[in-house]
């Protein structure tokens, strides 16, 4: 049995009041015409009907007009006044007794919060959970805020606010339940795909849905393979597989993420397309490249590296859950065997870990120097195309540290990436193919996605070979 939290001492009597509005006594036969033409001008108030019967009069009904007009008939739009005059419809004042149930969340919060406190206008929803980020001025009123949003929001059973910053290795945040049930496991629907998630154990951000859509549509092509280094519970990985039939190597260090990733792979029937891992990001990246030398995989019959149309995936006979689960290694295993050669050459590296992802780029320094050339270097490459053409596109995320426009942000990230790659030649801004401002996270910080192809001098860097060259130059 889940425990219900109710810390609010909300006095609902403070919301009771009387208001006066205008109403139109409209003949029954004209009501439909009136509503079609002036629907936007009718009263919109929770738990209040804007068409009401008139006692002892079955020939007409009262249509209540929006409270913004007050009791001033001159404030009504000209076309409405003309209609009323032509149809000889009478306007009269009506008094309404309203209370808490008749108010929107914003109107109720206006009654509760002091005028100098900003009224919260929304929240991030994760299934049945409303996740808020209340500021310091709002915190003294947090339980009333939580109760109001619980009462006024359809489908919400739990309201919580984040406390502090995400500072732990697994990117989970501390929170306090303000109202509702202490239930943190839920199901989130994103673009028609369902994800099981427990926000007390794993990281989830619904606001990144649009960004995931952008990357999938703008960069992922049929036949691509994606290396998702910090996949969480798999929103990008599973969506790419489900929507485009793309194969994905999906990894997260958090064992709870690994658990929910596997669970979401099974329930979305993409076990043939998404391989789950639970490893350190750097080790995972190196492992995926080193697998190009795995003879067991190389000797398997090579499958064509092409996508499966998402519509045809839906038409296939849905396998039973046990059949999908059988395709996964036991959950105690952290390394999933590669299934065939089509997984060996990945075309994209997705690094959505904004706090640290740029620093994790060092995982790719020299990692390709011992990679299987049959997998990573095109023998049939056209003239003028170097071997680096087959290297993956990197999509790395990061936060700016001050208020910067796109040009300054590009310079900022170029310097950060150059610092990571300094031992193998650095990095220049002309290598960036796309820089996208995903969202502003505060008044002084924005989240960007930087896309570039992994430089050949980084991928094939060999410190021993460089040392020999330097020694020869000194001679």
Poorly predicted segments: 380-388, 467-473
Helix and strand content put the structural class at alpha/beta
- Ends distance: 78 Å
Global geometry? elongated
Instruction: Report the CATH superfamily of the largest domain.
Output: Vaccinia Virus protein VP39
The rounded Rg comes to: 30 Å
Tally the beta strands.
Answer: 18
Give the biggest beta sheet.
Answer: 7 strands, mixed
Number of domains: 3
The percent range for strand residues is 15-25%
- Output the number of helix runs: 15
In words, what does this structure look like?
By secondary structure, this protein is α/β, with parallel strands linked by helices. The chain folds into three domains: 4-9 and 104-183, GMP Synthetase, Chain A, domain 3 (2-Layer Sandwich); 17-98, 2-Layer Sandwich (Alpha-Beta Plaits), CATH 3.30.70; 208-463, Rossmann fold (3-Layer(aba) Sandwich), CATH 3.40.50.150. Helix content is 27%, strand content 23%. The chain has 15 helices and 18 strands. It has helices spanning 31-38, 78-86, 105-112, 142-152, 209-218, 235-244, 255-267, 281-290, 295-298, 310-315, 321-326, 373-376, 406-420, 456-459, 463-474, and strands at 4-6, 17-27, 51-54, 57-64, 90-98, 124-126, 129-132, 158-163, 174-181, 185-190, 193-198, 225-228, 247-251, 274-277, 348-351, 393-399, 432-440, 446-453. The strands form four sheets. A seven-stranded mixed β-sheet has the order 14-13-12-15-16-18-17, sandwiched between helices. Helix 3 runs antiparallel to helix 4 and helix 5 packs across helix 6. The longest helix has 15 residues, at 406-420. It is elongated, with a radius of gyration of 30 Å. One of its GO terms (molecular function) is tRNA (guanine(37)-N1)-methyltransferase activity. It is an enzyme of class 2 (transferase). Belongs to the class I-like SAM-binding methyltransferase superfamily. TRM5/TYW2 family.
């Amino acid at each position: 049995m889940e425990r219900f939290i109710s810390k609010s001492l909300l006095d609902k009597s403070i919301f009771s009041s009387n208001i006066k509005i205008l109403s139109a006594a409209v003949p029954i036969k004209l009501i439909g015409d009136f509503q079609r033409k002036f629907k936007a001008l009718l009263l919109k108030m929770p738990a209040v009907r804007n068409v009401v019967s008139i006692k002892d009069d079955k020939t007409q009904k009262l249509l209540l007009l929006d409270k913004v007009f007050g009791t001033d008939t001159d404030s009504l739009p000209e076309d409405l006044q003309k209609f009323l005059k032509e149809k000889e419809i009478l306007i009269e004042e009506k008094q309404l007794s309203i209370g808490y149930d008749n108010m929107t969340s914003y109107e109720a919060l206006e009654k509760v919060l002091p005028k100098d406190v900003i009224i919260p206008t929304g929240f991030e929803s994760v299934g049945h959970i409303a996740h808020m980020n209340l500021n310091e001025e709002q915190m003294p009123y947090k339980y009333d805020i939580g109760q109001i949003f619980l009462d006024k929001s359809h489908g919400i059973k739990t309201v919580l606010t984040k406390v502090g910053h995400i500072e732990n290795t697994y990117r989970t945040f501390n929170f306090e339940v303000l109202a509702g049930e202490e239930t943190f496991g839920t199901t989130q629907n994103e673009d028609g795909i369902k994800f099981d998630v427990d926000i007390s154990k794993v990281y989830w951000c619904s606001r990144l849905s649009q960004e995931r859509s952008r990357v999938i549509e703008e960069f992922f092509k049929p036949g691509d393979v994606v290396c998702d280094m910090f996949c969480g519970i798999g929103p990008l990985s599973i969506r790419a597989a489900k929507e485009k039939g793309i194969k994905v190597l999906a990894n997260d260090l958090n064992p709870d993420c690994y658990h929910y990733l596997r669970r979401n792979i099974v329930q979305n029937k993409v076990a043939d397309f998404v391989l789950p891992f639970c490893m350190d990001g750097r080790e995972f990246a190196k492992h995926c490249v080193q697998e190009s030398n795995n003879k067991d995989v190389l000797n398997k019959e090579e499958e064509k590296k092409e996508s499966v149309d998402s519509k045809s995936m839906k038409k296939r006979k849905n396998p039973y859950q046990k059949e999908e689960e059988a395709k996964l290694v036991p959950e105690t295993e952290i390394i999933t065997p590669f299934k065939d050669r089509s997984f060996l050459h990945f075309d994209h590296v997705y690094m959505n870990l904004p706090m640290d992802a740029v620093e994790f780029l060092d995982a790719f320094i020299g990692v390709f120097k011992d990679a299987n050339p049959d997998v990573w270097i095109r023998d049939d490459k056209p003239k003028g195309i170097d071997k680096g053409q087959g290297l993956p596109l990197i999509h790395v995320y990061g936060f700016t540290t001050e208020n910067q426009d796109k040009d300054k942000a590009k310079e900022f990230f170029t310097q950060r990436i150059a610092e990571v790659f300094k031992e193998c030649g650095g990095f220049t801004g002309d290598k960036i193919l796309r820089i996208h401002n995903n969202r502003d996270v505060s008044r002084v910080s924005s989240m960007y996605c930087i896309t570039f192809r992994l430089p050949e001098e980084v991928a094939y860097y060999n410190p021993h070979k460089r040392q020999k060259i330097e020694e020869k130059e000194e001679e």
